[in-house]
Amino acid sequence: MSTTPVYPARAIVDLDAIRDNVRALRSTAGSAQVMGVVKADAYGHGLAPAARAALAGGATWLGAAQTREALAVRAAVGPGPRVLTWLYSPGAPFADLVREDVDVAVAGAWALDELADAARAVGRAARVHLKVDTGLGRNGIMPGDLPAVLDRATALQSEGALTVVGVMSHYALADEPDDPSVKMQTHAFDEAVRAVEAAGLPIEVRHIANSAATLTNPAAHYDLVRPGIAVYGLSPVPQLAVPGDHGLRPAMTLEARLATVKRVPAGHGVSYGHAYTTTQDTVLGVIPLGYGDGIPRHASGGSLGPGGPVLVGGGVDDVAAPDAGLGTARVLRIAGRVCMDQVVIDLGPYAPEQAGDVVTLFGASDGLTRAGAPNAEDWAQAAGTISYEIVTRLGARVPRVYVGTAGRETAGE
Ligand SMILES: *Cc1c(COP(=O)(O)O)cnc(C)c1O
C-alpha cells in the first residue's frame, strides 16, 4: 500500500472489523453456524477480502445472491467453506456450480430439473436448499406448491442427481421483531421443514435469519444464520440499536481530499440549481465525490434537504496523511446539489482548510477515523434510505484500501 496520499477519495475497509463482527455474531448465534453474506461485492466492501475476513472470524458458510458471485467466492476462498447461491434465472451456470461445490437454493421445480441435468453431466450430486416463501412474497416456493416440488426432489435424490441438504426462508419484517408476521413466518417455516422431513429427506441445515433476526430473535437461529449488513458493522435495526449495542463496529470509512478551497462573497449560489446560497463572505470546499461514486443525489442540501454530513478538520488520524487537515473539527452538511463527480461544502468564513486536506463522509469512529465522524446511518437518514444502500452503492471509481490482517495470511486462521 502506498503511503503517499495521491487519492482524491477512497474507502478504507477494516478487515479486522469484519472478522470481529463475525466473531460477535457467532457468539450471538449460539450453536448455530454463521454464513457471512457477501453478495453485491460484499455490500461494497470487496468480495474476496471480505469473504476471507469473515472466515477468519469463524463463518463456516458464505452466501451470495447471484451465481457469478458464488463462483467468485469459491475462487477467492478455495475448497472447504460451504458456499450458497440463491438467485438466478433459467440457463444459469449450474454445471459450474456443481463442479465448484456450490450449494444451490431452489425456488421452483424448473430449477431442480436444470440442476439435475447439470449434475448428471458433471457426474456428481448437486446440493440443494429448498427456498420456501413463508410470507415474504418474493422468491421462494409457496407452501401449496411444496408437495409437487418435493415429489420431484425425492425422485431426483433417489436417482442420485441431487441431495436436499437445507430448507431456507427469509423474513419480511425481521427489523420489526414484534410484528406478528415474524411469528407467523416462523410457524410456516416449521411446517415446511416438517413437510420436507415427512417426504423422507433428512435436512442438514434449516435457516431463516438475516442480521436483524440473528440479533433480535433467538427463536430464528435454527442451524445456521445468514447475516449480511451486521458483518460490515452496521445496524439492521437502527431505530432500536446502534452497532456497538450488538458488539459490532463499522468496517468502512469513506474519505476524500478537498479538490478546491476558495473564498466567495455573500449571496453566491452554489452548485446546480443554486439550491444553496452563501449568507456571508465565506470559504467553499469542493469534495471530489458525487453520484457517479454512489453519493445519493437525495443527500443534496440547502433548500433540497438536510444534506449529507461531512467531518472536516480536527487533525487527522489518517493512515496515509497524518499531518493533513488542521482546522477545528466540525461536521458540515452538503451545500446544494450533489453532482455526478463532486459536492460542495461551506467551510465558513474563517476556514483554515486547504486543497488536499482530508474530510470524512462516514467512518468507523474507532481510531481509524477521526472521532466524531458521521456514520453510514447518518447518510441514510439524510438521503431517505438505509445504510445498506449507502455502502453497497459506493462506486467502482472509489478505490478500496484494506487495513487489518484478518484473512490475509492464513486461509483458515
Ligand atoms: C441479503 C440476504 C441476507 C442478508 O441480509 P441482511 O439484512 O443484510 O443481514 C440473508 N439472506 C438472504 C436470502 C438475503 O438475500
TrEMBL record:
Keywords: Isomerase, Pyridoxal phosphate. Residues 251-403 form the Alanine racemase C-terminal domain. The active site is at K39, Y272. One of its GO terms (molecular function) is pyridoxal phosphate binding. It catalyses: L-alanine = D-alanine. Signal peptide: none annotated. Substrate binds at R138, M340. Its EC number is 5.1.1.1. It comes from the Bacteria. NCBIfam families: alr (TIGR00492). HAMAP family: Ala_racemase. This is Alanine racemase. It comes from Promicromonospora citrea.
